[in-house]
Amino acid sequence: MHKGARQLPLRHLSVRLPWHDTGWSGTVCNHPSKNSWCMVLKRIREEREDAAEEVVAGRAWSDLSEAELPACLTERGAVLNARAYSLRSRHPFADSSVETHGHFAENEFRLPPYSVQTIPFRWTRKDDAQTIADELALPFDLAREPELAFETVWINDFVNQQIMLDTFFSALAPEKSLVFLYAKRTPLTDDPRRVLVGVGRITSVGPAQEHAYSDDAAGKLRGLMWERAISHSIRPDGFDGFVLPYQELLALAERDGTIDPSEFVAFAPEEGFQAFSNVAEHVDHDLAIASLLSLADKVRVIAKHIPGAWDRHLEWISERLSGLWHLRGAFPGLGSALHAFEIRYGTLLAMDLAQRYCVDGRWTEDPWALVSRAFDDPTGVLSPQVASQVQPFDGKRLAALPSERLELLKLLSRFSLTIEQASRFFNTEGREGLTDEEILHNPYRLFETDRHRLEAVTIGTIDRGMFPDQSVREAFPLPEISRLEGDQDPRRVRALAVHVLADAEARGHTLLPVDQVLQGIRELELDPPCRPSKDLLPLLDQAMVPEIVDASLSDGTRAWQFGQRHKIDDLLRQQVSRRRKGRRHETGHAWRELVNQSLGDMPNDHDEAAVEELARTEKAAALEELFSARFSLLLGPAGTGKTRLLQMLCDLPEVRGDGILLLAPTGKARVQMQRNIEGLKALTIAQFLLPDRFDPETQQYRLSNAPKVESAGTVIIDEASMVTEDMLAAVFDALKGPKRIILVGDHRQLPPIGAGRPLVDLARELRPWENDREPPFPRVGPGYTELTVHRRQTGKGKAGRDDLLLASWFTDEAPDPGADEIWARMALGETDGHVEVRRWQTDEELKDQLLEALVRHVPEIEHHDDERGFGISLGGEETDKGVFFNSTWAERNRIGSAARCESWQLLTPVRGKGHGVEELNRFLHERFRKQALRFSDGRRPRTPRPNGAERIIYGDKVISTTNKKRSVLGRRKELVSNGEIGIVVGQTKFGKAWDGKTPERLDVEFRTQPGNTFVYWPGDFGDDGTVVLELAYALTVHKSQGSQFDQVFVVIPQPCFILGRELLYTALTRQVDRVVLFVQGQPSDLRAYTSSKYSEVARRYTNLFTAPDMLVDPSGAFLERGLIHRTARGELVRSISEVVVADALSAEGIDYHYEKALRGPDGVERYPDFTAEDPATGVTVYWEHLGMLSDSTYANRWEKKLKWYKEAMDLEPNGPENDKGERLVTSENRLDGAIDSAKIRQQVRDVFEL
């Protein structure tokens, strides 16, 4: 070890692996080209050649020539290889910087069997290395770094490399240190957390190896290879470590569609992101314990599905945990606590004391007594190196601390906190409203009050400090004020309940039944476990407040929710209630005339005019209500004219004169809103709430006592389906006296990511009809307006467009009786051109179908390899020298390429797998950007080289993944919002602009910001860092929310556990002209998702206006009764009218089938509402309930279906049976929209002669 390096205390190791479909055993993947998950690693993405790897698929590396070895060779793709192998490489600067590194020769790095190439990148990065060196007092010196002809973030000085790397590897002790294998991306889940793959012991640490040099290297720069070979104990027999059988679980899920692979995934601890990053990193004892507990939990789950030596693995984990608890000791945060007390050498001091006064993790003396002695007698207590760092006055400061402050410092040292975490809790200014005494009395407050921060203190961190090993507890007991009375102490139970409720809020709930909270606590990975029962509740009542307060379900079942959530909901209820009761705004406007003036002349076509009349009627009624109400909703799907109606409202002199504030939940929605409503500027909700009610660091919306904002007379919030309760409450809290607040959106889309579903709850509370009635026309009432007539997406014929008809099946309303024709037309391939269905089974078939669909529907793309047409389809401009991608140049009336980049869009529900965003983007990129990629990767290209793991280049369609101000060419910084889509339009150096240097800058123009060219640099595309741009040929459905594209191509895989009614509705309403569906399996399988059983909205527990009334579906799902319709037999149907008919049939003893397929003699399948086969008479009755026959589109579709009944089935409504013993029965609502249940029941008796 280099003399300047430092021996570190024992640590464990994390090592990143690429995903491998056969298990890292030294073979090529069985299906290399299908492995999109390893491509998240930049090096593999750049070097993998699918065709070449498919040739040697499944073969052992040992049987291959060096040229045939796969790209994962250098990315730890064979960590379980039973054979030794070598890596050959040359210094990465050897070719690009010949003057300084040209003498570096080829290296051979030998890896023994069952070993892993380990490179701690954080320790070799200049800035990070300096931080580490300062903390550990290492003689690292940036002044030693050689002067290079280019900028680099990496250490190049030989001595600096030795110091940092020798120090890092000194912490790894063979036979004692564990090695945790993890992956960034796997096919089991789209969750961005690190996935634990396996664990074993380190058996040896290989020596450092200097780079090889050519013969003329004397006196030139030296370099140390960063990698070292770490051998481990993991073997196939699992006796001393194991890997989880993820590949076997995926095969099981392929055979059994009910198995969700994500349930078997072990994740690295949430507090350990840094420790499971940068390829290889230290893992402290605390995180090692948490990681083993996570692995143990999943071993127990896997054992129920796959045979294996699971008891052996659990026993091994138990043995390791026993040792780790001893090693962890009582004071793992001693160094951080000393830093919090502003002792800058605190980490070094704590490490030195531990090395001198700890045996196997057990302190031989009280460490705090040792700290005091170290200040009094540094050379007698500490090593000479550390003693020289001690400042005696620090000891005087420590001795002068008030006893309560000293006890707090000691308490903080019991937890494995970072320096920043310890500092913000020791320094009173960092924890407003939280006293030292409160923390001492309940240390779990460190978690409860910190959980909204970016690097928050986790529940596990505190719990492990409160429950260390029994011998540690006996040797160093907690002070009396902090000591718990058992593993079910109310302080612990409350903190665990906070953890469970926080997780529930992240999934959309705003409260949970107490039973579910307690069950969630029992399922947590804790040591010791906490298993509270309802018998404990009387002891918890007082302990829960104020963090958690009581709530209830509609049947009185006790529930819990956050006290802050209760406050938020109270604010929302009061604001909406007071505004609904307030004085309405009066005016003498002739609303229909205003609508006519805005929309112009009526259509000449009779049918079009009839539909337009309905559209204008509802718009006039809605416009009046929006103007008059102090709080209102404007609901409706895309294409019904919401934006046009808002423009009419904003153009009214009295509205514009009072000022208008436009708000949106996302940056993309803000830009769209500002473009669509002329003459007004829009803000994101976050921008409006800064700085008092929105924290940009944590992305938290909050209430505040800060002064309210006198903003405008009218406040309009667009895309309100994406607004959480926290967002909406913060807006209400910030506004001072607006005359009207309007929420705009489509409440049938996906609910917001976060707590609640406020738009849905508001719509349910304000809708102007009762549950037992069909919606009226127009759907306008106090505070409620809903547009239902589509005018942007107009179709030919009386029955309306097929894409809209299909989307209507995925809403909370019953389609009309004739709407089932869409399923028949889809099956026969006879749709109207606005929707097309293509089937696939394998990923290869999907890609073939996608290519065919692009050629068929995107005019510019003429064949499967048409790079030219592909570029033009996204806004490229063809010249005799190729396709160029231009920025907007207003002075020359040049429209930029980004203006057309949303002409078509591919959507899919997931990121991973062969049908996910990442693989489909890669497929299209490599297929249609092949020549451009080759050009940018060539010698001295005139456009930037590929950037990031996705190899983004000039001309690519990209999406911003962050909200951040960025530099604009020639101007100051402007905001780029998450979700904005654009084109890379530079930097280029064509023609006279070529100066001999390849451009580095990526210039991007977003469609939503024409004229602004934003600058990106290679440093924005780190391998482990935040990705700021991604390819956008394919997007997830969630990302597309709030956007519209001319044509949409939607991939629908089956099974897919995140598919649901709202997701499919959102996907089916993104297009202006056409949607092409790529359905895995049968198109008719999609009908299952039209049921409320698959409603994400209905699954959420919320109590904004009414207590949840949940029922349990046979599948085990909890569904909000007020958002579904269920018959007496327990079936989920689509309307209250169908409930009445079904219950009337049941009450009279008539057995029936709901929406049973009826295949006619012509082969067409239709779906009657009810089919009842009467065994007494032998007659089969098809029962259709007719609702809104006053709606011309509804009536036209019923007429078409009735014609089919007559011509194909020989049936008349309510007529005699045909010669096959079949009858058609229809029933109708009353004229007021209600259904007469007594009349329906009498009709049942009459039909069946009862």
From TrEMBL:
Any idea which GO molecular function terms this record carries?
A: ATP binding; DNA helicase activity
Signal peptide bounds? none
Q: Does the keyword ATP-binding apply?
A: yes
Which residues fall in a coiled-coil region? none
Taxonomy-wise, where does this protein's organism fall, top ranks first?
A: Bacteria, Pseudomonadati, Pseudomonadota, Alphaproteobacteria, Hyphomicrobiales
Query: Keyword Hydrolase on this protein?
Result: yes
* UniProt name for this protein: UvrD-like helicase family protein
Q: Please name the PANTHER family in this protein's record.
A: DNA HELICASE B, DNA2/NAM7 HELICASE FAMILY MEMBER
Q: Which residues form the UvrD-like helicase C-terminal domain?
A: 1031-1077
Show the InterPro entries listed in the entry: Coronavir_polyprotein_1ab, P-loop_NTPase, UvrD-like_helicase_C
Q: Which UniProt keywords apply?
A: ATP-binding, Helicase, Hydrolase, Nucleotide-binding
Identify the Pfam families for this entry.
AAA_30, UvrD_C_2
